[in-house]
Amino acid sequence: MKTNFKKINVPENWVGKYFLVKCPDYCYSGLQVAEFDGINTWHNDFGDNISNYVVSWQEIEEIEDNKEEEIETIDTSEELVSEQKELFKDVEYRMREEGVGYCFEHYSDWKEIEDKKFHELRLKFLESLKNIKEYVNFRIKQYSDSDFDGIE
Question: What is d(CA 112, CA 75) in angstroms, rounded to the nearest whole number?
Fold first, then answer.
């Protein structure tokens, strides 16, 4: 599916940072988490160079590794561990196969996952997704002479 979006470059000061990119010609959902190395934009999961597909971006907050106190302890009963592990494997599969945006915005709210940090991050991601869609719609309207319904 080719679109009429104009390819853009990521700001140089984003080297080594993760961000959400809009890549409608790269995948179905069009939204990917990426990292910029100063020259190219790399898909966070697959290592693909997606520089030629980026049409917009939004910085996302990185999680500091040293915040162990924020990670809740989990019930280690065998049945619950097995169930939660399968749910997380399903999340990973959906993100990989259908795109991160579709996984969280349309596929499921994943309420059956019993992990506060997961849901905190999921909600932050959805807020970032909403913000980038609003910004993209704003820019399209600003640059367009014709009517535009916007991204749903």
Answer: 14
Average pLDDT rounded to a whole number, residues 92-99: 92
Domain count, the chain: 1
Secondary structure of residue 87 in the 3-state scheme: helix
Residue 30 lies in a domain: yes
Token pair listed for 101: 């945006």
The CA distance from 24 to 66, in Å, is 35
How many CB atoms sit inside 10 A of residue 91's CB? 19
Average pLDDT of the residues of the chain: 74
**152 belongs to a structural domain:** no
Q: Mean pLDDT throughout 57-80?
A: 63
